[in-house]
Amino acid sequence: MMSIRQRKGVRAADPSGDDAAQQEDGAPEPKLPSERHTSRRLWKILSFTVGGAVALCAGLLTSVYLATLHENDLWFSNIKEVEREISFRTECGLYYSYYKQMLQAPSLAHGFRGLMYDNKTESMRTINLLQRMNIYQEVFLSVLYRVLPIQKYLEPVYFYIYTLFGLQAVYVAALYATSWLLSGTWLAGLLAAFWYVTNRTDTTRVEFTIPLRENWALPFFAVQVAAITYFLRPNLRPVSERLTLLAIFTSTFVFSLTWQFNQFTMLVQALGLFALDSLDMLPAAKATWLYSIQVTALLLVCALQFFNSMILGSLLISFNLSVLIARKLQKNLKTGNFLHRLGKLLLHLLVVLCLTLFLNNMIKKTLNLKSDEHIFKFLKAKFGFGATRDFDANLYLCEEAFGLLPWDTFGRLSDTLLLHAYVLVLGVTATMALAAALHHLRCAGCRLRRWAVRLGVAGSSRQNRVVLFGLMAPRQVGGFIDGKTT
Fold this sequence. Notes:
Dpy-19 like C-mannosyltransferase 3; Dpy-19/Dpy-19-like; transmembrane helix
């Protein structure tokens, strides 16, 4: 019996040992959490490196492509210096003349004095060009050309145009980064860069109107949009948030300094932020930062332009201040049930509108401002609210760049498949944003799902701006569409 039991015990032990051996040989060992984290981190580094390299290449190739188009169109390298300057048509030649004036001045001090006391631009009048016009970029470029040891190798006109073509590389890289942030893949950024180039007719005029203010400003606006898109992401580290705020402020300031129409573009942006903030789709602290940055940048530009009163009387400053004041007056705006919140929201809109009009009228009456009346007359005439006899307003109306989008624009956008993708993405994001807004209004303090947060904040912010820019319908609206579609 003992032998039988022993034999049974041995037989019982053998199969278990074989199974254990088979499991040890055949089954893979589970990865440790540290190994998974390391592999995921290496993949992110590799993806970021490849995506960044593609962004750099896309920007540089676009810059070279636009410069080649300019060369082929004008044969720029084979014409005389006078002919090169003549190629800067209309106000483009005026802006370049200030750059040339700074270079020909005996010293920088003489150059600055000539710009501050200019008696050539307007007949029988001496004006301060640094106050009247956005020409600090020409001043900065002339100083840079004087300081850098490049006079023997590069002519002033080439330094000027190459700088602007280089900024287009920044523009494309910023669109690429924005699309990457919104989609989570750098392939979307490559698609945005591709569509920007293929729709060049509707996205840029840089190859034939190089010195225009928009060609200086829009690259920095694209950088600002990319930085805001990153800033609106949840759960940012404090260091990342501070660096992003610095990037937003710097790009906003340079954008405001280089283009006289900056306040209207940023007003559209502020309206989009206000909609998100009112619907509780944007953290109040982040909205306050963005409002404050816009106002601070404009005030700093106002100081650099010798306290240009037109900036102080802008609707953007009045609107942002009104939003901040109204928020203090209505502290319980985002509490209560659906009907209560809807009523508070309508009251909030009314308060902000009244405060904006009141502050703007008070500032203009106090400073006796009338310099921007032609812009509002132009807008009224553009949207059919009455004709105007104002010369400046009619001049804008005659300019094709400020007209309504022609119908053939949609045909060109359809030919490159951009319009189809844009309409599809706009419909999806609009639906998701509306669902997120209704969820917030019905359930105060509730958390949204992750997809709703991402689409509701970043996507809705860009969606609001694109729709409003589309209503304004300048020919440059294609540049804003490209970054949105992906």
